[in-house]
Design brief:
By secondary structure, the chain is an alpha/beta fold. It contains 29 helices and twelve strands. Helix content is about 60%, strand content about 10%. The longest helix has about 30 residues.
Length: about 700
């Protein structure tokens, strides 16, 4: 059999595929541990490198990552890094500093100067033992200082987003400090790179002078041009391919100029992003166009390349590990101490000041950028590089758990997550929490309108949209400034139905938990969710729906929407179990709308007379006056297959079928069994009602039927 020789392109494609697969798989583990995705990508690089993959299977690593492919992988990762630093610059929003200029500058500069001084002191101690031959004392010490003073702005934004801290005083101040920190640190890094690349004092002065001229030209020449361009781009459609080409050409030129000056291409990319106008749609649309390719495809290549250069085996012996531990302590004390003390001096409590110090100790991506620059320049050795990578991983990984300890969720609950309305007293006797996931919410809104009764002015409907966290703080700000498309669609449908709806929207890292928390805050009579195609394909009520069913104290209704446009004929299928009570009470509430006609289907199973009696008792309990209402009909059918009976009746032209979470329909404890034919085969939309799991809440809900005027 002839030997198979792989081309350079085949190897590169295999490397990209392996990197994406490993980083995404590790991302699942990181989310379970409460860590951001970027941590998974950093660790994925180390896993694929000589520290693990090369140690366990050296031949396979040599095939997938041959030494000859490193240069191509490095260049491609650098392109991804240039694009990413441009996006980071785009996220620098001067509005973050509004009202916080003094405190943010004091905290951020203190959080740079103190760790930089401690890092330089560590450099004095480590130079003789760990500096590479031929490396100057000054560049080595300066790089150690810079590596201790960096904060990872994107990782920090993700942590704040996942903890619902972006709108809190701690989050706002920390984000402003990180923004100032980013700009200051990159300026310092540019100077240090210039010193490291220069052959003497004269070259350093020339590099500094050229850098200043470049910055002045970007601010006073390029920025006005970008301002005129931004005025023309008022919509997403206005950002044509020609406009994108111009912006990318300026980005390439900016990066190339700073590389030629001697302060690295990344600084030019970051500066260009920072000066680009943030008002209007230009910055937002550029992020949308470039983010997926740069963050999902190209940026993981940089982490993988960093991992390939990280050899944990280089840190060997007690002394090396003690030095690594010492660097972690120095980095933590400098960053945490400088930030926390400065924050306390600005008037914050110690708890909040400590939270800021912990958050500013986040390093992640920015640290790796600095370390790779130092290794490329030969300023730090592979051993020191590995030590500092370990330091970056430890300090970043520790941020979330330590923050939960210092600033627990109980402390957060004392503050409004989004607006004071979320915790406002609830006057309504019947409240629907309508959970809107996407723009296909028309059917849910139709059901909510019928539940509210439309004539009952005391009923309330809250439309809740939970946004997923992002690494982009300016995206979070825009989300807060503009109503999400799903809520816009819901409100448009609500106006058609003359339904009064109050909207709630915030960022959530755990949708199921936050839906339950919001239901608790609003004392919801019913949580209304949408059941999508995966519900049927996976054979279970999975994901967010399953979490809500397992946690909530309140009844839950899940709508399997089959293009529900109107709600006039409703089939209520009774199974005879205790789950029927909650289902019948929801059906009774639907019947409060004058245009809705209810058909209560009582299936008599000859093989199970006890269930038949229970079904009749449940109907009598919830609908005692049904004979006096012409809009309510009771159909009694004898059938040995309740599911077949419901499907046969549903074919008679009903708009909605309402069933309980009962084993007869293949629905028990949120699971769908092989008999879930009603859910899968009904020609109409299906509303599945799950009873509350809390007895007290169940009792309160029971008081609503049939003519209660008490509030839940």
């Amino acid at each position: 059999m002839p030997s198979l020789e792989l081309s350079s392109l085949t190897i590169l494609l295999g490397q990209i595929g392996a990197i994406i697969v490993v980083s995404r798989l590790l991302g699942i583990v990181m989310r379970w541990l409460g860590q951001p995705q970027v941590m998974a990508e950093v660790i994925a690089g180390i896993v694929l490198g000589p520290s693990l993959f090369g140690w366990l299977w050296p031949d396979a690593m040599a095939t997938l990552f041959p030494a000859s492919s490193f240069e191509l992988l490095k260049m491609l990762s650098q392109v991804g890094l240039v694009l990413f630093m441009f996006l980071v610059g785009l996220e620098f929003d001067p509005k973050l500093l509004r009202g916080r200029t003094h405190s943010s500058i004091l905290i951020s500069h203190t959080s740079i100067l103190l760790p930089m001084a401690l890092g330089a002191a560590a450099g004095l101690w480590l130079y003789d033992a760990y500096a590479s031959p031929g490396v100057g004392f000054t560049p080595f010490v300066l790089f150690l200082g810079v590596s201790m003073s960096v904060t990872a702005f994107p990782v920090l934004a993700r942590i704040l987003s996942e903890r619902n801290l972006l709108t809190s005083p701690v989050g706002a101040i920390t984000l402003a400090c990180a923004a100032v920190d980013d700009v200051t640190a990159w300026c310092i890094l540019a100077f240090v790179v210039g010193v490291a690349r220069a052959d003497g004092i004269t070259d350093s002065l020339w590099t500094t002078g050229f850098a200043l001229v470049f910055i002045v030209g970007m601010v006073f020449v390029v920025r006005p041009f970008l301002g005129r361009l931004a005025v023309r781009i008022v919509t997403r459609e206005g950002l044509t391919s020609n406009a994108v080409s111009i912006i990318l050409l300026v980005l390439i030129a900016s990066s190339a100029i700073t590389e030629m000056i001697g302060i690295h291409a990344l600084f030019g990319a970051f500066l260009f992003g920072a000066i680009l106008p943030k008002d209007g749609s230009l910055a937002e649309t550029l992020v949308e166009k470039l983010e997926t390719v740069s963050v999902v495809l190209l940026l993981p290549l940089f982490f993988a390349f960093s991992g390939l250069r990280t050899e944990i085996g280089l840190v060997s012996g007690t002394r090396d590990w003690l030095v690594t531990g010492g660097l972690i302590v120095v980095a933590t004390v400098g960053k945490f101490g400088g930030s926390a003390v400065a924050a306390r001096l600005t008037g914050l409590r110690w708890r909040e000041a400590s939270a800021i110090g912990i958050l500013m100790n986040t390093r992640g991506l920015m640290e790796l950028v600095v370390l790779n620059i130092g290794l490329d320049l030969g300023v730090i050795s592979p051993t020191v590089f590995t030590m500092l990578v370990i330091m970056a991983l430890v300090t970043t990984f520790a941020t979330t758990p330590i923050l939960r300890w210092v600033y627990p969720d109980a402390e957060l609950r004392g503050r409004p997550l989004v607006s004071p309305e979320l915790a406002a007293p609830l006057p309504a006797p019947f409240t629907v929490l309508l959970c809107v996931a996407d723009a296909t919410s028309s059917g849910l809104t139709t059901v909510a309108a019928a539940l509210a009764g439309r004539r009952d002015e005391t009923a309330r409907v809250f439309a809740l949209h939970l946004a997923t966290p992002t690494d982009r703080p300016s995206v979070e700000r825009r989300k807060r400034d503009t109503e999400p498309i799903p809520l816009v669609t819901t409100m448009a449908r609500a106006r058609e139905l003359m339904l009064d709806v109050r909207t709630l929207e915030f960022v959530s890292s755990d949708l199921g938990v936050d839906i339950c928390r919001t239901a608790e805050a609003k004392q919801a009579s019913l949580i209304l969710l949408g059941g999508h195609k995966p519900l049927l394909l996976e054979g279970r009520l999975g994901g967010t729906v399953r979490k809500v069913l397992a946690r909530t104290r309140y009844p839950v209704a899940v709508l399997v929407d089959r293009d529900l446009k109107k709600l006039e004929r409703v089939l209520v299928a009774c199974a005879g179990g205790p789950e029927d009570l909650a289902m019948l009470r929801v059906a009774h509430q639907l019947g409060q709308t004058p245009s809705v006609q209810l058909t209560l289907l009582h299936v008599v199973d000859p093989a199970d007379p006890a269930r038949s009696r229970d079904s009749r008792m449940n109907i009598d309990k919830v609908f005692p006056d049904r004979d006096a209402d012409s809009r309510i009909q009771v159909r009694v059918l004898e059938h040995d297959s309740p599911a077949d009976a419901v499907l046969e009746e549903a074919a008679a032209g009903y708009d909605l079928v309402v069933i309980g979470m009962d084993a007869r329909w293949g629905l028990a404890s949120g699971m769908l069994g092989g008999r879930q034919r009603v859910l899968a085969e009904a020609p109409a939309s299906v509303l599945v009602v799950h009873p509350p799991i809390d007895p007290v809440a169940h009792a309160a809900f029971a008081e609503l039927a049939p003519h209660a005027d008490v509030a839940t």
